Amino acid sequence: MVLKYLAMSKKFLFVASILLTIIVGAVLFWYYCCDCGSKSRDKETEAVSTLKLPDEQVAEPLAPVPDSSAAIDWQAVRDQINSNPPTLQFEPYQTEGTLNQDSSIKLEEMTDYLENNQDGGLLVTGHADISGPRSLNMKLSQERAIFLKSVLVAHGIEEDKITTTSKGPDDPIADNSTPGGRAKNRRAVVIIK
Question: Is the pTM of this model over 0.85?
Answer without folding.
Answer: no
